[in-house]
Amino acid sequence: MTDQALADLTRRLPELRLLTDAGDLEHYGRDWTRRWTPAPLAIALPASVEDVQGIVRWANEYKVAVVPSGGRTGLSGGAVAAHGELVLSLERMNRVLGFDAVDRTLTVQPGIALEAVHGAAREHGLIYPVDFAARGSCSIGGNIATNAGGIRVIRYGNTREWIAGLKVVAGNGELLDLNRGLIKNSSGYDLRQLMIGSEGTLGIVVEATLRLTDPPPPSQVMLLALPDMDALMQVFALFRRKLSLQAFEFFTDVALKHVLAHGAQRAIDGEHPYYVVTEFDAPDERAHEAALAAFEQGVKQGLINDGVMAQSDAQAAALWRLREGITESLAPHKPYKNDISVRVSAVPAFLHEIQALLTREYPHIEVVWFGHIGDGNLHINVLKPVSLSDADFITQCEHVTKLLAQTLQGHGGSISAEHGIGLVKRSYLESTRSLQEIALMRGVKQVFDPNGLLNPGKMFP
C-alpha cells in the first residue's frame, strides 16, 4: 500500500524528487538534536509551489503526516521525522524571486540560506538584518517557522519584524497570500504573523517577502572581561546609555575554554569568569571616545577587569569567533540545550536563581552558559559525561528542565526564546502559556490543518 501511494505521488508530480535510500532517510529525518532515531517514510523535494500543494493534497488523501524541512539546524526536534512521516524538504526552492527598489523588499523561496539572503541584499546596497552563527546552513523558511532571533535582536528585533508578506500552503493544500507586502493593513486578523513561529504546524511557507533596511554606520567591536555575574547587566546599562549598541553578547570562562580548544585565539590575558562581546555604532572619533569613556568608567567602578577593542576587520571577526564558535565547539560533547528568556529587567534576579539551581542539580556535570543578554535570552548547555549513558543523561536533564521551567514561570519567562518548542520542550509549554492559550492554539491548528497532518506531535504536549 505504501509503495502504491508513493508511486501515485510521483505520477501526479513528475517534477518531484522522491528519495527513499536509507542514508537519505537518516540525513533528512533529523535535526541538530540527534536525540531521535529518524524513520521517515520518504523524502519529497518539490521544485514549485504547485508541487508543495500537490504533496499536501496527496497527504490528506492517503492520511500521511508531513514534516516540513529546511536547513534542519534547529535544536528543539521540530524537524524530526521518527514515525513514518513524509519529509517535505524545501531545499530545491532556494532562489531569489525579485527585488523591489521602492518598497525595499526581497522576495525569496523558503529554501534559500540566510547567508545567501544577506548577499542578495548587499547587491542592492541594503541589508537583511537578522543574523546568527548558523547563517550558512539555516534556511529562511526555518527562520520564519521559529521566529529566529540571533545576535542583533537588540537593534533589529526578531524575524517577524522583517516579514512583509508570506505565501503559505495550508493543511488542506490551499495557497494563502498573506499581507502582500503592505506596510499598513488593518483589514482583519494578520494571519502572516500567526504563521511566523508556528513551526510548520499550520502551513508550509513557500514564498517570503522580506523587508530590507539601510546598512548600519561603521561599527566597532569590543571584548570585555568581567569579574562576576552581577557586573553583566550593570555593564550593559552603562554601554547602552553611552553608545548605540548593535549587539551585546555574553559567555563564561567555561565557554571560552571550549572555543579556545577548538582553534580560536585568546584575546585577553588571564582568567576571568565572564566575558562580553559588544558591537556598537562608531561613525566618528566621538563614538570611539565615548566607548573608551564607558570602558574606563566600568573599570573605575569595578565592573570591568580588562578589555580589547578591535583594530581591524580581521580582529573584529576573531573577537566574534569567541562567541559564535561556542556551539560548534560544544557539539562533540552531545550537549543538552536550554534556550530560555525573561524580561531584560528580570535578568539579574533570574541569573542568581538559575545559577543556584544548576550548581545544585549538576554538581559533577559541566554546564556552559552564553547568550544574548541584551534581550534577555540565555543559552544553557549541559555537557554529557562520558561515563553517563544517553538515556540516563536525558532523564537527569529533563528533571532539571522541569525545575527550570518552574523558575521561568515565576519570572514570567519563556522556555523557548528562539528555537521553538518542537519535541524537546512540548512538556514544558504550560510554564509559558496558560491552559486557555493552549486550548486556543489547538483550535487554530484544527482550522488550518483539519486532519492534523502538518508536523504532528510538535509543539503541543
Mean pLDDT: 95
Overall domain count? 4
Radius of gyration: 23 Å
Strand order of the largest sheet: 13-10-12-11-15-16-14
Main sheet record: 7 strands, antiparallel
CATH domain topology of the largest domain? Uridine Diphospho-n-acetylenolpyruvylglucosamine Reductase, domain 3
The SS-based structural class is alpha+beta
**Ends distance:** 31 Å
| Number of DSSP-assigned strands | 16
Uncertain residue ranges: none
Residues in β-strands, percent: 15-25%
Helicity range of the residues?
25-40%
Q: Output the number of helix runs.
A: 15
Keywords: FAD, Flavoprotein, Oxidoreductase
InterPro entries: FAD-bd_oxidored_4_C, FAD-bd_PCMH, FAD-bd_PCMH-like_sf, FAD-bd_PCMH_sub2, FAD-linked_Oxase-like_C, FAD-oxidored/transferase_4, Oxid_FAD_bind_N, Vanillyl_alc_oxidase_C-sub2
Protein name: FAD-binding oxidoreductase
Pfam family, one: FAD_binding_4
Summary keywords:
alpha+beta; Uridine Diphospho-n-acetylenolpyruvylglucosamine Reductase, domain 2; 4 domains; 16 strands; 461 residues; Uridine Diphospho-n-acetylenolpyruvylglucosamine Reductase, domain 3; seven-stranded antiparallel β-sheet; five-stranded antiparallel β-sheet; 20% strand; Alpha-Beta Plaits
